[in-house]
Amino acid sequence: MLWEFCGDRWRETCFLLQHEAWTPVIEPPSAGVEDDPVCGPVYQELLLDRKRADQHEVQLFGRAGKVLFAAAVTFDAAAEAIEYDVSARSRSEAFPASFLTTYSVPGFERQGAAVVIGSGAESKLRLDPVLVEDFPVCEVLDGPRQSLQIRASGPTRMSPEQAGVTFRWRYRIQRHDDA
After folding, report:
1. Closest CA to 14 of 3, 6, 99, 5
2. I need a surface site. Which of 47, 56, 101, 151 has the fewest CB within 10 A?
3. How big is the CA angle at 114 (ends 109 and 119), to the nearest 5 degrees?
4. DSSP string, the chain
5. What Å distances lie between residue 81 and 64, 92, 102, 128, CA to CA?
6. Full pLDDT tens readout for the chain, 179 residues
7. Cis bond before residue 155 (omega within 30° of 0)
């Protein structure tokens, strides 16, 4: 996983070892990203935290318009997995009905609600939506031009005292073996 600061935000690229070379397989689209919160999370701050010897977490924070984003991306070496736990919060009345996160991928095949990325390659990754209690599970959609889109729908309204709206979604990426 590579994190790069591009312009005013952090962007991630996930690599797989293919034929003894590291190849990008999940990356942000190459086109410019608008500051439209409906397009997905925007992160301006990145912090690294070591949880255990075999587990690290990247904590991300950002803002687009009136929406605040936070994410914890956990790298678990023992499980050979990366888990994204993402939330969006706003006090604005003009909050979108869903968010889309778009990733360019070289090819994929569907397996129920999950997708296997790198179809035909020697190494593959599997992306699975993960249930978060009290929130709708995110969906993995076919996007334009060899891309996947992760859609988080909702929202879950907070109590009247908090006067805000929160979305929360989670997905997991791990190595996939054809069996």
Report:
1. 3
2. 47
3. 25
4. -EEEEETTEEEEEEEEEETTEEEEEEB--SSPPPS-GGG-----EEEEEEEETTEEEEEEEEEETTEEEEEEEEEETTTTEEEEEEEEEE--S---SEEEEEEE-S-EEEETTEEEESTTSSSEEEEEEE--TTSPPPEEEEETTTEEEEEEE--EE--TTT--EEEEEEEEEEEE---
5. 28, 35, 20, 11
6. 889 998 888 888 888 877 888 888 888 765 444 444 456 788 999 999 999 899 999 999 998 878 888 999 999 988 888 999 998 888 776 667 778 888 888 888 889 899 998 866 667 888 999 988 888 888 898 888 788 888 888 755 555 555 567 788 899 999 887 75
7. yes
What are phi and psi for residue 38, nearest 5 degrees? -65, -25
Please give the C-alpha separations between residue 61 and each of 32, 67, 92, in angstroms, as whole numbers.
20, 11, 18
- Provide the pLDDT for residue 37: 46
pTM of the predicted model as reported, rounded to 2 decimal places: 0.83
